[in-house]
Design a protein that fits this description.
Strand order of the largest sheet: 6-5-4-3-2-1-22
Distance between the termini: 38 Å
Helix content: 25-40%
Structural class: alpha/beta
Oligomer: single chain
Number of domains: 2
Largest sheet: 7 strands, mixed
Number of helices: 14
Shape: globular
Radius of gyration: 22 Å
Strand content: 15-25%
Length: 473
């Protein structure tokens, strides 16, 4: 769809350059008379047609954006930053302290993988580009990092005379925040990714009560997470697999989910609900680095520092790819946590090749599985999956534990929005698949009496025209 342009320089506009009709590539513009701000700057992931958008010329001149605010460190929210800087962005990038540490880890890892993939493609000649190039390099990440600016939550940051913002914890992962802009006297609230009301490690999302405009994620806007006891559900699946002398493979997002699952397994062992002797391997260098970084931010957790450190003690961390092969060959049942969470790449694929064809083994899916990913294929009971050019039969047990999702479900999303209902905000839905967003739109109207609009890619919408300068407080 082509971009619809409005020429009035005196109005405030909203435009989504990503995460409009999809759950990935989050990039939103708040365009004001004094400054254009970008909220999140993520990569498109999932199906090929989405990933190819990462290579398109940026739909907005990078140098025209005056500031950027990052809600959290997941790749679909921060992964495009090095390329945006490469294209001319030079403004500050504001974020919470954990997000700053985690984003650096994630961006370095992403760049390194892209460089390795391009080198592999050139060695084997399977790229249609000659030579194959990475989307960006580690050097591009190094150029972007000095622009990172840490700001405290609940502390107002001024961008211009009539534009400021405040971060509020949103759950989801450590450091994740919603962003509330005071924009020419109006409150424009970007939800970011909203976390669970009850989490293994994180406090619930902040209770915000006033907004004129809300830009809201809808990842699980059409469904409810299981009401079953997550710990008991996981324990039962682990014990059943151990009884059958199988292995448990848990694909994890390296930031957030890996640490939460580690704590849950630690708790189950301490309570003797699963055997204390079963070995647990964390085979993700990025998850290990993220875990170490998070130990520096204990105030973001609901467990104390000692327990946070103890949950790492019973886990063997592997950072060497050669050791992965040894872990696979090691006899006896084991629990493996490995990235990526949607099985799009990483060490988890090596385990998947070995474990999928054997019915004794278990694959536990614990997070959102985007369209076009191997994780979605397994969740949809595909009989086989393709890995590195070869098909592998799915004989292992595949189970989903919805209670470990980092995203709020429909009821929790409605609860979050209901606190804002009294101010009757204009609501814009982003970060969700089309059918999911429409179901949530109807639910918002029926339960809260609020009309919600679904954002479209690259369509600029006018929010309001500021009052005359002398009347703006």
């Amino acid at each position: 769809m082509g971009r619809k342009q409005h020429n009035s320089a005196s109005a405030v506009y909203l435009e989504s350059l990503g995460a409009a009709g999809t759950v990935t590539g989050s990039k939103h513009l708040l365009i004001t008379p004094s400054m254009t701000v970008m909220i999140d700057c993520g990569l498109f992931q999932g199906i090929k047609t989405l990933r190819e958008r990462n290579w398109d010329k940026p739909p907005v001149a990078a140098a025209s954006v005056g500031a950027m605010v990052l809600t959290h460190a997941h790749l679909d929210h921060c992964g495009y930053i090095p390329l945006f800087v490469k294209n001319g962005y030079r403004g500050p990038i504001y974020m919470s302290a954990p997000t700053r540490d985690l984003a650096e880890i994630i961006l370095r890892d992403c760049a390194k993988l892209q460089e390795e993939d391009a080198a592999r493609a050139n060695r084997h000649g399977f790229s249609k580009h000659h030579p194959a190039q990475p989307l960006y390099t580690v050097a591009d990440v190094e150029t972007a990092l000095p622009l990172f600016k840490v700001c405290a939550t609940a502390s107002e940051i001024t961008l211009s005379e009539h534009l400021s913002f405040t971060l509020f914890p949103a759950g989801h992962i450590p450091g994740a925040c919603s962003v509330n802009f005071n924009c020419y006297g109006k409150n424009v609230l970007f939800s970011g990714d909203i976390g669970r009301e009850h989490s293994e490690l994180l406090p619930p999302p902040a209770r915000l009560t006033n907004a004129d405009f809300v830009i809201m994620e809808t990842t699980y806007g059409d469904r409810l997470h299981s009401a079953a006891d997550t710990a008991q559900e996981m324990a039962m699946l682990i014990n059943d697999t151990l009884f059958n002398k199988g292995n448990i493979l848990i694909p994890c997002f390296a930031v957030g989910r890996a640490q939460e699952v580690m704590h849950l397994i630690y708790r189950l062992k301490m309570q003797n609900i699963i055997p204390r002797t079963v070995p647990v391997y964390l085979d993700s260098p990025m998850a290990a680095a993220a875990g170490k970084a998070l130990l520096h931010h204990p105030q973001w957790f609901i467990i104390d520092e000692k327990e946070c450190a103890r949950m790492f003690s019973g886990v063997t961390t592997n950072e060497n790819y050669e050791e992965t092969k040894k872990i696979i060959r090691r006899r006896g049942s084991k629990i493996i946590l490995a990235a990526s969470g949607m099985l799009t790449g990483g060490r988890v694929l090596e385990y998947l090749k070995q474990y999928l064809p054997d019915s004794k083994n278990m694959v536990l899916l614990i997070g959102f599985q985007a369209e076009g990913t191997r994780g979605r294929a397994l969740a949809n009971k595909a009989p086989e999956v393709k890995i590195h050019g070869k098909y592998y039969p799915v004989r292992a047990q595949v189970k989903e534990i919805e209670g470990l999702s980092a995203h709020a479900d429909q009821r929790e999303l409605l609860n979050w929005l209901s606190r804002l209902a009294a101010s009757q905000p204009r609501v814009f839905l982003v970060h969700g698949e089309p059918g999911v967003q429409d179901a949530f739109r109807v639910k918002v109207k029926d339960e809260l009496g609020i009309y919600a609009e679904i954002m479209q890619q690259d369509v600029r919408l006018m929010l309001f025209e500021p009052a005359a300068p002398e009347t703006i407080s």
